[in-house]
Write a structure and sequence with these properties.
eight-stranded mixed beta sheet, single chain, 8 helices, 11 strands, alpha+beta
Length: 358
């Protein structure tokens, strides 16, 4: 791993001091104050990591001089022990600094739109889609996040043909972004009388939510149709023209929203979904430009990529991108996903650190 130079560490400290002085001056206002505060907050963990590296390196230099000087044997023995201890700690401190300096995904702190769709497997796939949605709900609850249902198409025997929800809270997208892809389940379906193991699948997409300032949508680019809701949802759903279909003419993206009784609420939710999908299209375009041919080790986020298998007879979950198998399937399905998500984040960090050396 590339070692961070003393000059780079000095630059970080100088910039931190400069921002601190600016904020203390009282000369900042409005947008400029927000920008400086944001940069200062982002630099804080970097400065902490840089100071630790600088402190360890300074101690190592002093101890090395002691060892090379005219000191008593006892002092030299102590110096050797401390040098060994610092040399053991320094690589981890340097790695923490390198991680702190890695470019952050601008969307990491955003809320996320979670979309789950039943794939191959009929009724069993819909039941599995429901299980996945419940798993993410439990994980969100444990982290103090809020899950708001945007739309749902309920299957006849339970579960979902499709479910879309908004997940808000601290660092939502950073922790859920590696969930996009095909999730496969192997189990004996409740609908199967012969006890045979079936394989079904559901597709998960996690998109960073867009704010109005991120995506400007021109009214003339939209075709909005209002019609009567259909399908399950209670008697009153079908009595008014409240369903909304929005077509974004330049891209052909179509969003249908009919879960609410209010036409205005349906339109607001549909626009929120549309804005998020347009924002994701732009992110993908920029990512393709920057990344070129390089693919992240934990996957491209491609929704057609099989990323994970949930094997119920063996009680295991396997993430195929990082060859990780955990024999804790019941706990994971109850939302205890921290070990799994932490491993994916660590693998992504390792891959990005390796790319710096390359």
């Amino acid at each position: 791993m590339t070692s961070i130079s003393p000059e780079r560490i000095a630059q970080i400290a100088a910039r931190h001091d400069e921002l601190q002085a600016l904020m203390a001056s009282g000369d900042l206002a409005g947008e400029r104050f927000v920008q400086v505060s944001k940069e200062y907050a982002e630099l804080e963990p970097v400065v902490g990591a840089a100071n630790e590296v600088r402190r360890l390196r300074a101690e190592l230099e002093v101890l090395t001089q002691l060892l090379e000087g005219d000191e008593e044997p006892d002092i030299r023995d102590i110096a050797r022990e401390e040098i060994a201890a610092i040399k053991a700690r320094l690589p981890e401190a340097e790695r923490n600094l390198a991680l702190a300096l890695l470019p952050r995904d601008a969307a990491d702190e955003r809320a996320a739109m979670l979309e789950i769709r039943a794939g191959t497997g009929g009724d069993e796939a819909a039941l599995f889609a429901g299980d996945l949605f419940r798993m993410y709900q439990r994980y969100a609850d444990a982290r103090g996040w809020r899950v708001e249902l945007i739309s749902a198409s309920v299957a006849e025997l339970g579960g979902y043909k499709e479910v879309v929800a908004s997940v808000t809270g601290q660092g939502v997208f950073a922790r859920l972004k590696f969930e996009s892809g095909v999730h496969r389940v192997q189990r004996v379906p409740a609908t199967e009388s012969g006890g045979r193991i079936h394989t079904s699948a559901a597709t998960v997409a996690v998109l960073p939510e867009a704010e109005e300032v991120d995506v400007q949508i021109d009214d003339k680019d939209l075709r909005i149709d209002i019609y009567r809701s259909s399908g399950p949802g209670g008697q009153s759903v079908n009595t008014t023209d409240s369903a909304v279909r929005i077509v974004h003419l330049p891209t052909g993206l179509t969003v249908i929203q009919q879960d609410e009784k209010s036409q205005h609420k349906n339109k607001a939710k549909a626009l929120k979904v549309l804005r998020t999908r347009l924002y994701e299209m732009e992110r993908e375009r920029l990512h393709a430009e920057r990344a070129g041919a390089r693919k992240s080790m934990v996957g491209s986020g491609d929704r057609s990529e099989r990323i994970r298998t949930y094997n119920f007879p063996q009680g295991r979950v396997t993430d195929h991108r990082i060859n990780l198998t955990l024999h804790r399937l019941p706990e994971i399905m109850e939302g205890e996903m921290e070990e799994l998500i932490g491993a994916l984040i660590a693998e992504d960090e390792a891959e990005r650190l390796a790319s710096l050396d390359g």
